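[audit] Reproducing an earlier prediction to check determinism. Same input, same settings, fresh worker. If the tokens differ from the archived copy the diff job will pick it up downstream; this log only records the rerun itself.
[audit] input (160 residues):
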Amino acid sequence: MHLRYLGPSHAGISKPSVIENEVGLGDISARREMNIMDTQTERPLSPGLICFGPFRLSVTGRVLEKGSVPVRLGSRALDILIALVERPAEVVTKKELFARVWPDLVVDEGNLRYHVSALRKALGEGRSGTRYVTNVSGRGYCFVVPISRAAPGLTEGSII
């Protein structure tokens, strides 16, 4: 199954979320619900959980959990993760990530490297030997582990 991000839903209602960034400061952001599309059927996928390794990612809830424990992850690193898991095993270019994570802003490539590093740290890369995100030199990044979607009836509190 291929996933594609279509941006905020215009019909959705903004729901605030508090996200801790890497230096421990709270960042309150109002994000609209995201529409995830199946690129083969061109229909929206039901909101659910994306699972990989020991992690569960709720795109609409903007929460990453390991087991049932929320993982502290800054909003930019979470945006990068969402962009990568929507296109697993595909290279997401740096240009695409800049447009997705920092729309209408010009930022240095060091910002992208910093937040990818924070994402890797949060996922525990290096400690367990598992690699989730690889760098494709000069092009971008690729999410390299298999993902699965939780059954439509499962919620964030369900045990998988």
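[audit] rerun output stored. Observation attached for the diff report: The longest helix spans residues 109-123.
[audit] end
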